[in-house]
Amino acid sequence: MTGDEGRIITDAMFTKILLTITVVAVVWCGFKFLGRLAELKHRAAAKPDVPPQRQAVEAEVLVECRVCGTWQSAHAAKSCGRTDCPY
Ligand SMILES: [Zn+2]
After folding, report:
1. What's the confidence (pLDDT) of residue 48?
2. Which residues have C-beta within 8 Å of that of residue 77, sequence separation ≥ 6?
3. Distance from the CA of 38 to the center of ligand 1, in angstroms?
4. What is the pLDDT of residue 9?
5. Which of 54, 70, 50 is nearest to 62 (CA)?
6. Is 73 in contact with 62 (CB distance < 8 Å)?
7. Coil, strand, or helix at residue 79?
8. What's the 19 CA to ligand 1 centre distance in angstroms?
9. Domain regions of the chain by residue span
10. What is the mean pLDDT of residues 55-62?
């Protein structure tokens, strides 16, 4: 009888240890998940600091020829052929 009793106690202990490990693992994963969520929230909150100025800088500057009235980019303006064209 003592052998059976010993086996029952070992099974109960094994189940207890397994349960403890499972609980610890679940809690650990939960904390990891919460930590990731907090990090994602922090990143999302910090992102709007990037200014949308780049597009404005890269936009082309157009100049109008006051003789022929055509619009050209300021850094690549060419003469339209008229003698009084400023470009
Ligand atoms: Zn012109």
Report:
1. 66
2. 63, 65, 87
3. 60
4. 78
5. 70
6. yes
7. coil
8. 85
9. 1-50, 53-87
10. 72
State the distance from the centre of ligand 1 to the C-alpha of 84, rounded, in angstroms: 8
Give residue-wise pLDDT tens across range 32-57.
999 999 999 998 888 766 666 655 55
Amino acid at 52: P
- Distance linking the first and last C-alpha atoms of the chain: 110
Whole-angstrom Cα distance, residue 50 to residue 43? Answer: 12
* Environment class of 61 (CB within 10 Å of its CB; exposed 0-12, middle 13-18, buried 19+): exposed
Indicate the Cα dihedral angle 14, 15, 20, 21, nearest 10°.
70
Could you give the C-alpha distances from 69 to 33, 54, 72, 84, in angstroms and in order? 63, 29, 10, 12
Ligand 1 mean position to 56 CA, how many Å? 26
pLDDT, greater one: 84 or 49: 84
